[in-house]
Amino acid sequence: EMPQNTPFKQTLHARDLGEAALKQIIKPIEAEHGKFLVSMKSEITGTSIEIDARLIPGESRPYSTNEVVQMWRQQLGDVAGVKSISFDAERGGGPASGRPFTMKLQSSDAPSLARASDELKGILESLSAVKDVTNSLTSGKPQWDIELNEQGRSLGLSASDVAGQVRDSLYGARALRQQRGKNEVTVLVRLPEAERQYQADIEQLIIVTPTGARVPLNSVANLQKGRAPAKIQRENGTQVVAISAAVEPRSMIPNLQSTLEEQYLGALKAKYPSVNIGYGGRQADNKKSASSLQTGLLFALMAIYILLAIPFRSYKQPLLIMAVIPFGVVGAICGLLLLGYGLSIIAIMGMLALCGVVVNDSLILVDYANQLKRSGVEVKQAIMDACERRFRPILLTTLTTFGGLAPMVFETSRQAKFITPMAVSLGFGILFTTFVCLLVLPTLYVLMEGKSKVQSAEGEPVKS
């Protein structure tokens, strides 16, 4: 990102430096390993420069995109005249687009918002895992801030009077409109360029008071030179500032959020009570998705319970069958840790789907035990026989399900990275639940059915 009003020649020079730095790190890699860079494309839009590099598929190259970005960042270093530089190793499609970490500040108090955003940016820059911190509240074109003083008010002037006369003098006042064929021509009258070119010209601009007196602008108003924001973002009429950054590795984002909430955000919110500080970008999307998944999980569990309660004609046994669901979640988390995946929204979706799958084994086991119990077999013997006779169907069901998911679980291509966490959650959750079903569920069955049998015996009338 270049500053406002940067000469185009300087922008081209900055782009050339970025491309040259990338070529310098690619050249020795290709000399040793062969083809590495597929294409490189650059684009200049306003004050922004974007360089997009496409590499060969991940399974065929010796360096990951994160490693290439790190080398590119070190090779380029700081570039004179450039306002900010950011790198992104995961550009393109997928369910999570945008910068890896974003915080959103919102307030109607512009000065407090600017100070809070600068302070938060400094906090993020001080953390080791955070790179390329950018602030959306950046300075734009130079401007004059004009504030009416007491002398101006005593002369009967208002802020709108002064603003209107300044605008007419510099931009132009409409003198007439004239129709020329099918077009309407507007004639504006303003000061000659020689009288509005320098700072002294602005300060000595003549302002006419309501009584007809003529006074210089600097005698009725306080003038201060400043810069306008490059852009102003608003939500529900309130100004919003986004602080975004890259986090390396991305698995550190939850730790970063915990650190900010425990050590920094509390003091920052107390210092700027008028500023609302929260998460934006991917973090806001994840929070929204997690909230909807919680609602979906509740309805899914209710539906499973109702569908089990109707055929079993029991309120307790559906709970017994569903008792394996938490163990399935534990197995899914262990699988994600084993293969190096984080707890993403896609992985949680896999756990949600797991709830309806892991009950199959316990359903087969409990149903067969009930059949044996109705035929006169004792509770303990019934569940033991059920485990013995249903061991093969349960094991084969688990192995075939995991085998069907295995290609997605162990796929290494970039295209499969988005869906792999869901397959890992399903596969390892089912695998872990099978052993829990055969070891823990029989104990729970004996405890529940044995207690029910004792209560039934106590409730029978005594015959004399």
Distance between the termini: 96 Å
Envelope shape? elongated
Uncertain residue ranges: 92-96, 454-464
Structural class: alpha+beta
- On the 0 to 100 scale, the average pLDDT is 84
Rg measurement, Å: 35 Å
Considering the protein shown, what is the CATH homologous superfamily of the domain at 314-456? Multidrug efflux transporter AcrB transmembrane domain
The portion of residues forming beta strands comes to 15-25%
Question: Can you offer a commentary on this structure?
Answer:
- By secondary structure, the protein is an alpha+beta fold.
- 54% of the residues lie in helices and 19% in strands.
- A hairpin with a 2-residue loop joins strand 11 (233-235) and strand 12 (238-247).
Keywords, separated by commas or semicolons:
464 residues; Multidrug efflux transporter AcrB TolC docking domain, DN and DC subdomains; Multidrug efflux transporter AcrB transmembrane fold; 13 strands; alpha+beta
Describe the structure concisely.
The protein is of the alpha+beta class and 464 residues long.
List the helices and strands and how they pair.
Blueprint: H1 8-33, E1 37-45, E2 48-55, H2 65-76, E3 101-107, H3 110-125, E4 130-135, E5 139-148, H4 150-154, H5 159-170, E6 173-180, E7 183-189, H6 199-203, E8 206-208, E9 214-216, H7 217-220, E10 221-229, E11 233-235, E12 238-247, H8 253-271, E13 276-280, H9 281-312, H10 317-322, H11 325-339, H12 345-357, H13 359-374, H14 379-389, H15 391-409, H16 420-439, H17 441-459
Antiparallel strand pairs: 1-2, 3-12, 3-13, 4-12, 5-10, 6-7, 8-9, 11-12
